[in-house]
């Protein structure tokens, strides 16, 4: 059975493995580069996830299959959208394990996040998505996000072009 809920600190090690796995499956078209390895080792470390949950458990929504994490949505509050100069939460990660694609896990995570944000009075949600990630761009468009511009995401040696997408959640 698939369920949804806020992350618990004790889940951090499992969330760390999930995020690293989905990241590499999605982006490592040329294998595991140093810039990807360095980025995910730091950004998806157990310590980083623990401190995110401790600071505000609303920042990580988890999808579980039989109580095991299969998908993660990360929200960052108090962000300024880089295109429209408004303060709104960012959907900074939406990662589902590949074997659970197409079962409504991504849809369920977005819905949980939007319900939670609406209750706390937020009116917009925005995100950045890699322009070459066609599956994710199509998924977000189906969920009402509209591209409002593009920004660069610089890493160690390469720079990646992202769409900035936004939707109203009122
Ligand atoms: C993009 C991503 C989050 C989508 O997750 P997902 O769980 O596969 O999404 P869903 O299952 O909700 O929707 C995908 C499809 O399944 C269909 N679907 C939804 N509920 C379903 C269900 N219960 N049973 C079968 N299919 C279903 C949807 O209609 C949709 O089909 P469509 O594309 O033909 O419209 C996922 O592919 C992913 O994690 N990708 C890698 C990471 C990434 O790129 N993240 C985004 C950038 S940060």
Q: How are the SSEs placed, and which strands pair?
A:
Layout: E1 2-6, H1 12-27, H2 34-43, H3 46-55, E2 60-65, E3 68-76, E4 90-96, H4 105-119, E5 124-130, H5 134-142, E6 146-154, E7 159-168
Antiparallel strand pairs: 1-2, 2-3, 3-4, 5-7, 6-7
Give an overview in words.
This protein is 35% helix and 31% strand. The protein is α+β, with helices and mostly antiparallel strands and 170 residues long. The chain has a single domain (2-124), classed as 3-Layer(aba) Sandwich (Aminopeptidase). Helix 1 crosses helix 3. The longest helix is centred in the first third of the chain and has 16 residues, at 12-27. The protein starts with a strand and ends with a strand. Residues 22, 26, 93-96, 101-107, 129, 133, 135-136, 139, 142 line the site of coenzyme A.
Summarize the structure.
The protein is built from 5 helices and 7 strands; from the N terminus they run E-H-H-H-E-E-E-H-E-H-E-E. The chain is an alpha+beta fold and 170 residues long.
């Amino acid at each position: 059975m698939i369920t949804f809920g806020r992350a618990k600190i004790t889940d951090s090690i499992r969330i760390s493995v999930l995020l690293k796995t989905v990241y590499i499956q999605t982006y490592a078209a040329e294998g595991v580069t140093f810039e990807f390895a360095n980025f995910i080792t730091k950004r998806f470390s157990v310590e980083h996830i623990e401190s995110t949950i401790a600071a505000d458990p609303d920042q990580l929504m988890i999808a579980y299959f039989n109580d095991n994490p299969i998908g993660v949505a990360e929200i960052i509050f108090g962000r300024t959208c880089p295109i429209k100069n408004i303060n709104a939460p960012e959907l900074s990660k939406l990662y589902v394990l590949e074997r659970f694609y197409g079962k409504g896990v991504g849809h369920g995570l977005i819905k949980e996040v939007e319900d939670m944000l609406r209750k706390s009075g937020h009116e917009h949600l925005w995100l950045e998505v890699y322009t070459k990630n066609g599956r994710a761009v199509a998924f977000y468009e189906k969920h009402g996000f509209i591209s409002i511009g593009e920004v660069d995401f610089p890493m160690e040696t390469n720079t990646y072009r992202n769409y900035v997408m936004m939707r109203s959640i009122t």
